[in-house]
Sequence to fold (777 residues):
Amino acid sequence: MRKRAVHRRSAVAVVVIGALVIVAAAAARTVSSSGPTKLTVWAGWSAGHELTTFKKVVAEYDKNHPEVTINVVGGIDDNKIVAAIRSGTAPDVVSSFNSYNVGNYCGSGGWIDLGPLMKKDHIDASMFPPAPRYYTQYEGKRCALPLLADDYGLYYNKKLFKAAGIKSPPKTLSELAADAKKLTVRDKNGNIKVAGFDPVVGFYENTPDRWIQSFGGKWVDAKNHSLIGTDPAWAKWATWQKKLVDWYGYDKLVRFQAQPIDEFTPSQAFETGKLAMNFDGEWRVAFIHNEHPELDYGTAPMPVDDAHPELYGSGYINGTIIGIPRGVKHEPEAWALVRYLTTADHPLAVLSNGLRNVPTTSSSLHSKEITPDAHFATFLTIFANPKSGTSPILASGQAYTNAVQHFFQQYQAGSVKDLTGGLKNLAKQLDAQVAQAKGGGGVP
Amino acid sequence: MSLSSVADAGAATTAPALRTRARRRADWRRRRLVLLLMSPWIAGFSIFFGYPLVMSAYLSFNHYDLLSPPRWVGWANYHYLLRVDPQTWTAVRNTIWMIVVAVPLQVLFAFGIAVLLARAKSGAGFFRTVFYLPALAPPVAATLGFVYILNPATGPINTILGKLGIQGPLWFQSPQWSKPALVALSLWGIGNTMVIFLASVLDVPQHLYESAELDGASAFQRLRWVTLPTVSPVILFAVVLGVIQGLQYFTQAYVAASIASGQASQAGDTFSGLGYPNDSTLFYPVLLYQHGFNDFQMGYASAMAMLLLIVSFAVTLVIVLNSRKWVHQAVPR
Fold:
């Protein structure tokens, strides 16, 4: 009886082992036949050196992770991202050039909530400085992570400064206006040959959201209602800006801008010496290095309101964001890549060196891998400054900052006669716009 | 009643019934054939026009951000459109300006060129080709060309004006000149309307001119009392088409604004220069596009589209009803 039981147990063991061998063989066959998981990453970068660097960083990850192969597609904008998510053809990882539409992506669930994934991997958002930490979430839901940041400062042409007898870059806005006038060269008809500084809203990176940082202006109150109509900083900035525009002559500036001086080409005005000072992002350092290495220039924080010298050294911050779209097929692999790109010092340092963008974790800011560069160091300091800030993340997305920019463009062109009244109206419109974006018919 | 008469009566009632049934069957066969032959059009119409129209009407009462499911909001989008959005009336004003100024000029220009070409004694083929040719240029390419030619700093027009001692206008960079520049672009590419006018002018019966001449009518009187009434149906066609195109004016305004504002230079950026300069090229369809595809407010954009549909229909109806007073109706011979 006992002998028969032993035989039965042996037979069962043989069957179980046999079954396991078959399953293991089948599993092995499955892995080898399907190969590594194919991931696709969409990025906004399209300029040669920017896209090449990003591809290089991803290729390094690809090489070290045989379980995936990654294809990078550049030149992507938010319209393409939304269209792909809607049609169910979104890639595994998406990135956008700026954070303006985070409200839309997080609020709608178009980009998945990264909170649970971060919690599972013990990643704390406090590893990112306050500004990028803020602009990658909406109402507490984190659907994006920062992948390099942009901050803004002053570029100045040292040769033109020397010729005009200016010894150091301006620190206040009255100094900036005075230097701009000294540096401007006109022809006999009064047309601008060299602009000391071009203050026109909409020209290159001149937008109100970036400028208002120099005045310490507030955007919204605790309930996200606009403060543009009540915070005097906005009117103060607009008055300063319009005064300088009027000194040049709005038409003269528009004619100056109509020259072939496109921003992202080698004929950009600062790079070719047609603009003595320029308000620009940190990426210009790499553009100048690649396109006009002979240019003798310096960088400094943006000058600030004379009444707020304590703001000097701070600046506006925004930047590229990265996330995982809804309906992703390979979520674990996609998250592993996003986590690597956004939280590890090495890829952030390599990207920062190639693009000359600011790395976005507090530790990567001090990475020894970052190539020292005096021009770029200015922007690392601006990024680390506790007074640096960003624009609000709201339901209406980019339409919000566009509406603000639109108002100041009207004002500089002379179409708004009552600035205070206009700003109060703008505040009401902005609140209505946010309410409309939430589906309320414009009733805040 | 005899048996034979009953049988006759039965035969009499059966024969028409049979004939009716046969006719109905033939009618049905004919209808089936018609439906079969029309089915590609019916399918295309339903899929590409009917369904989007119904969906657009439905979405106009919803909050729809393209990513989350539509949420019913009743008349909220229409309320925001008509009572709150400050850009609505700017866009409406620009669109009306374009229709009121551009459409009459287009009709006059196309008709004028057609009359001149109809009178050409030699080289008619060459001149017809030359005046028609711009219509073949794709709208985007044509607009790019105009923005280049009218560049205030480096464009050939302002360079020539500069050599004559005149400072040229800012064209697409100026709120005052941007719409006239777009009108110039539309007149340059008027070839299609011009060809229809030319065919109509050449079709005016010669004997009418001869009779008018015998009555002592001058060249202007012949144009006024013979040519114009005869081609009036084509004028109606050109006006209706021009108004509808004016209500849907988009491509040229979009391209001109993006190039002139210098904000189309990097692929990853979402363009925010629509309406440049100073909202002067912000036409109703441009605003609709901005809300739908830049701001991701497709429910609101659908409400705008529905309003555009109703206005287009109403304006066309008014023009057509009004045309009975001035469009010459051909008398049956």
